[in-house]
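Help needed: design a sequence for this.
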């Protein structure tokens, strides 16, 4: 009977030790430094799993004042955005009205549609992935130098 009591006491002590350690960790969040930020220039690599046209100028530029600009492939774009954790809300997009080759115009249309659906994003090793509210990948881009 003494052995059973001793085992139960050891179990209680182990549980309390683990529980108190967990509580202490929860109360003292550690900020993990990261150099990845949405701010900067992003070259669009694919739209809805379709690679962009080679040497295309599809570019997204996010600045620190929550402004998004760039090129949708042919025309320049401008809008605002708001971040909350890994959620993003992109405002109505204004574009210039140039005409380009039909393939670029089609790609531009696809990019603008995809941007209007984006609700979440993920940054990993210089790659930006943007998803709709259902988690479907809309845009993939890589960070470039300004």
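Sure. Designed sequence:
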């Amino acid at each position: 009977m003494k052995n059973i009591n001793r085992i139960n006491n050891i179990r209680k002590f182990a549980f309390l030790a683990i529980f108190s350690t967990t509580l202490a960790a929860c109360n003292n969040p550690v900020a993990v430094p990261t150099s990845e930020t949405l701010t900067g220039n992003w070259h669009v690599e694919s739209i809805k799993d379709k690679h962009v046209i080679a040497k295309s100028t599809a570019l997204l530029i996010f600045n620190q004042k929550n402004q998004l600009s760039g090129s949708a492939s042919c025309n320049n774009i401008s809008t605002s955005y708001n971040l909350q954790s890994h959620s993003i809300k992109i405002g109505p997009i204004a574009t210039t009205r140039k005409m380009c080759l039909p393939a670029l115009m089609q790609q531009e249309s696809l990019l603008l549609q995809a941007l209007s659906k984006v609700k979440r994003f993920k940054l990993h090793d210089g790659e930006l992935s943007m998803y709709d509210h259902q988690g479907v990948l809309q845009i993939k881009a890589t960070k470039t130098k300004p």
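Residues 45 and 51 are 6 Å apart (CA to CA).
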